[in-house]
Amino acid sequence: MKNRIIIATAMTALMGLSACTDPAYLNSGGGYQDPNARAKQGALAGAAIGGLAGAITGGDDRSDKLRGAAIGAALGAGAGAIIGNQLDKQAAELRNSMNNSAIDVTNTGDRLVVTMPQSILFATDSTAVSGALRGDLAALANNLNSYPNSRVQVIGHTDNVGDAGYNQDLSQRRASAVADVLFQNGVSYSRVSTIGRGEDAPIATNLTPEGRSANRRVEIVIIPNN
């Protein structure tokens, strides 16, 4: 019973942290409230996860479990803070290095998501990366090379206009085309995977032109190695 209480408490804390996440951390004036917000959140999340792991592995005695939870929380907090601080720093450098306001860099707390709309990447039905975007992709590649301890997912998305099978293939080919530019700029093949999601992961309604435009995108997801 006590074990279940410890585990439930840790899981509740972790879910609470996730629920209060604001990817932008913006104040009403559009500025960042706290440049270390993600590091702090990472430390708290790491502590919750570490405490849970420590409680589970701390032995059968109640005092052993409490001691294990405390040790796990401390170790988890340290690891989480390091990752959170790295993501804060990497996100800031990415925003400064890419000269295009249409590119969005979001720090979710455990990864970075760089979103590039199709309108600036590709012509309609094309998989040839726009020459104007190659400089920004080169800047992204340089950033990835500066932070080598991560894996990268390049994910293509479309709207729901046309044949679903065609959209799936197009999204995969576009993801591969973006990844090729990263490879040309020195990013290791072993770090990168390409994924075509087609029309199955919209971020806006497909009932309006604006929504369909938002759904046509490529996301570069940067996930730190734990």
Automatic annotation (TrEMBL):
Predominant place of localization: membrane
Task: Tell me the leader sequence span.
Answer: 1-21
Fetch the InterPro entries from UniProt: Bact_OuterMem_StrucFunc, Gly-zipper, OMP_bac, OmpA-like, OmpA-like_sf
User: What Pfam family is a match for this entry?
Assistant: Gly-zipper_Omp
- The segment(s) forming the OmpA-like domain are 109-226
Q: Which GO terms describe its cellular component?
A: cell outer membrane
Keyword Ribonucleoprotein attached: no
Q: Where in the cell is it found?
A: Cell outer membrane
This protein's record includes keyword Membrane = yes
> Which key words are in the record?
Cell outer membrane, Membrane, Signal
This protein's name: Putative OmpA/MotB
Organism whose genome encodes this protein: Donghicola eburneus
Its organism's taxonomic lineage begins at: Bacteria, Pseudomonadati, Pseudomonadota, Alphaproteobacteria, Rhodobacterales
